[in-house]
Structure formats: structure tokens, C-alpha cells
Specification:
Elements (H helix, E strand, L loop, with lengths): L27 H7 L2 H7 L4 E6 L7 H17 L6 E6 L7 H12 L4
Parallel strand pairs: 1-2
Length: 112
């Protein structure tokens, strides 16, 4: 089955998902600068959701939230702010499965 063209799911938190020793490797900061809001602007007009847990020690929640706000501006300028969502939850490094599936159903029309 072909991947639907109107939705994508990416993990973007301003480079935080690399973690560990990756941040000390040559070239890391060039990769980091390509993440976040600029990458999200390339995803538009497809639906885009970012999941982040308050207790997730692998991602800086506040930074992810700030990057999302900048990405949201692109969607607002295009008049499609309903296609982007920040899915925050109180847990750690776990998916917000219920809301993520609701988002996918809303934008893909696919039942679970």
C-alpha cells in the first residue's frame, strides 16, 4: 500500500533526539540547524504532529515547544493551522498513542 501523500510523521525537537555522544561529533550542529522549524516548513502543507512528554529526559520539552511554535507560524501563514498540533503529555519517553491515532484519523481518514 502506498504511503498517503497528505500526512507525515516526523520527530523534530531541534536536534535533541540524537542525544548522547552524537552532539559531540563533527558536523552535528549543521544537522541540528536543519531540524525544527525549517524542516517543518518543508513538511507543510501536510499534517504534522509533534509529541513530547514532560518527563522525557531525552528531549528538552521547552525547546521542543518553542520550535513547534515557530513551525506553527508557517502553517498559520498558509491558512492551515488546523493541520499542525503539539501533543504534550505528562509522561516520559513514550508515545501519546491515543491522541496520535486521533490526529492520524482526522487527517488521513483512516480507522484504527
Amino acid at each position: 500500500m502506498a504511503r498517503p501523500r497528505n500526512c507525515t510523521r516526523e520527530t523534530i525537537a531541534a536536534g535533541d533526539w540524537f542525544g548522547g555522544d552524537a552532539m559531540t561529533q563533527p558536523g552535528f550542529h549543521e544537522i541540528e540547524q536543519a531540524a525544527g522549524e525549517p524542516l517543518a516548513s518543508l513538511i507543510a502543507p501536510r499534517a504534522f504532529a509533534v509529541e513530547a512528554g514532560l518527563k522525557d529526559t531525552s528531549v528538552n520539552f521547552e525547546r521542543a515547544e518553542a520550535e513547534f511554535a515557530r513551525a506553527h507560524e508557517h502553517y498559520e501563514m498558509l491558512g492551515i493551522a488546523d493541520r499542525i498540533e503539539f501533543i504534550a503529555h505528562a509522561e516520559g519517553h513514550v508515545p501519546a498513542t491515543r491522541r496520535a491515532f486521533e490526529f492520524l484519523e482526522q487527517h488521513l481518514g483512516v480507522a484504527r
